[in-house]
C-alpha cells in the first residue's frame, strides 16, 4: 500500500463538513442577537413584559438570520478557497469534502431564502407587525453586506466595518417585526429609535474590533492592529453601557439599572480583557485565536446583559442557555 495515501487526512463526512463550513458553533451568537432584539421590542409593546405572542414571526426571524449567517460563512470559504488550499488544506472545500460549486450555489440560495423568510414573516399575522416589510428590507441589507464582505472588500480596510454592519443589521432584524413602533416624537430611522440603534451599533462596533483583532490571526500579529481592535471592542461595550441614558423605551431610566448594567458589562469583560492583554503582549497565533474565540463567546453575554436590563431574568437566561449547544459543537467544529 502506498504510504503517501495512508498518511493523507481523511475527508469529513458531508454533514460534518457542511457544519464546519457554516461555522455552526458561531450560529448561536446570531441567534442571541435575534432573541435580544425580539425580546426588547416585545417588552416595549407590552409595557415592559416580554413574551412570545407571535412565535411564528420569531421563528421566521431566527431562520432568516440562520440562513444568512451560514451563507456568509460558506461564501467566505468559497472566495478564500485558493488561500485555504495553500494554508489550511483541511478546510471543507480544499479537502474535497464539499465542492466549490456546491458551496457557491448553497451560499447564494441561502441568502435569497433567508431574505424571503424574513419578508414573509411580517405577513404571518394580519395587522401584527407595525411595518411588515421591514424584516425583508433589513434582511436584504444584511445579505448585501455579506456578499460585499466575502466577495469584494475582505482584503481592504473596509472589511471590519462591513463585518460590524452585518452584526448591526442582524440585531435590527430581530427588532424588525415589532408590534409597536417607538413614540412618534422620538428621533427615528426606519422606525428604529436612538436606543435601538445604539444597542445595535454597540454590538456592531464591538464586532469591528473583533475583526481587526482577527485580521492576521494565522501569523504573528501587529501589536498596533491588536491595540486598535481592543480599543474598538471597548468602544462597542461602552456604547451598550450608555443605552439607558439615551432611550427610556429600551431601558427604564433608573440609576440603579444604569449602574447595574455597567457592573454586569465590566464583570463580563474581565475574562476577555485578560485574553486581550496576553495577546497584545505575546501576539502569537494561538493567543490571538483564543482571544477571538473568547470575544465571539462574549457576544451571547452582552446580548443577555441588555436583555436582562430590559426584560428581566427569564429571557436573559434563555439567551445565556445558547452557550450550551455552542460549546458542545465546538468539540467537533472550529469557530474561527
TrEMBL record:
PANTHER family: CHLOROPHYLL SYNTHASE, CHLOROPHYLL SYNTHASE, CHLOROPLASTIC. Gene3D superfamilies: UbiA prenyltransferase (1.10.357.140). The keyword Nucleus does not apply. The chain crosses the membrane at residues 30-50, 56-79, 100-125, 131-151, 158-177, 197-214, 226-247, 259-283, 295-324. Pfam families: UbiA (PF01040). Keywords: Cell membrane, Membrane, Transferase, Transmembrane, Transmembrane helix. InterPro entries: Prenyltransferase_related, UbiA_prenyltransferase, UbiA_sf. It is found in: Membrane. One of its GO terms (molecular function) is transferase activity, transferring alkyl or aryl (other than methyl) groups. The lineage of its organism: Bacteria, Pseudomonadati, Planctomycetota, Planctomycetia, Pirellulales. CDD domains: PT_UbiA_1. GO terms for cellular component: membrane. This is Prenyltransferase. It comes from Bremerella volcania. It is a multi-pass membrane protein.
Amino acid at each position: 500500500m502506498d504510504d503517501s495515501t495512508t498518511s493523507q487526512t481523511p475527508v469529513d463526512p458531508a454533514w460534518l463538513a457542511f457544519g464546519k463550513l457554516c461555522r455552526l458553533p458561531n450560529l448561536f451568537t446570531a441567534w442571541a442577537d435575534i432573541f435580544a432584539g425580539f425580546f426588547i421590542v416585545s417588552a416595549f409593546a407590552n409595557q415592559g413584559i416580554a413574551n412570545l405572542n407571535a412565535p411564528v414571526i420569531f421563528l421566521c426571524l431566527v431562520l432568516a438570520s440562520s440562513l444568512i449567517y451560514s451563507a456568509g460563512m460558506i461564501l467566505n470559504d468559497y472566495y478564500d478557497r485558493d488561500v485555504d488550499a495553500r494554508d489550511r488544506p483541511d478546510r471543507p472545500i480544499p479537502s474535497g469534502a464539499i465542492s466549490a460549486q456546491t458551496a457557491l450555489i448553497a451560499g447564494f440560495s441561502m441568502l435569497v431564502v433567508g431574505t424571503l423568510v424574513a419578508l414573509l414573516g411580517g405577513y404571518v399575522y394580519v395587522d401584527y407587525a407595525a411595518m411588515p416589510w421591514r424584516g425583508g428590507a433589513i434582511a436584504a441589507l444584511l445579505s448585501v453586506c455579506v456578499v460585499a464582505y466575502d466577495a469584494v472588500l475582505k482584503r481592504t480596510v473596509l472589511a471590519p466595518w462591513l463585518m460590524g454592519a452585518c452584526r448591526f443589521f442582524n440585531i435590527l432584524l430581530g427588532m424588525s417585526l415589532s408590534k409597536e413602533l417607538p413614540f412618534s416624537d422620538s428621533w427615528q430611522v426606519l422606525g428604529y429609535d436612538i436606543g435601538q440603534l445604539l444597542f445595535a451599533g454597540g454590538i456592531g462596533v464591538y464586532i469591528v474590533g473583533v475583526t481587526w483583532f482577527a485580521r492576521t490571526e494565522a501569523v504573528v500579529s501587529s501589536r498596533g492592529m491588536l491595540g486598535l481592535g481592543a480599543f474598538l471592542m471597548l468602544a462597542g461595550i461602552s456604547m451598550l453601557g450608555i443605552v439607558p441614558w439615551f432611550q427610556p423605551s429600551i431601558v427604564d431610566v433608573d440609576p440603579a439599572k444604569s449602574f447595574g448594567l455597567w457592573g454586569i458589562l465590566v464583570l463580563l469583560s474581565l475574562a476577555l480583557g485578560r485574553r486581550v492583554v496576553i495577546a497584545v503582549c505575546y501576539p502569537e497565533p494561538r493567543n490571538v485565536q483564543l482571544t477571538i474565540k473568547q470575544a465571539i463567546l462574549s457576544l451571547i453575554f452582552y446580548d443577555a446583559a441588555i436583555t436582562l436590563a430590559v426584560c428581566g431574568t427569564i429571557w436573559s437566561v434563555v439567551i445565556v442557555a445558547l452557550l450550551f449547544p455552542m460549546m458542545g459543537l465546538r468539540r467537533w467544529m472550529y469557530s474561527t
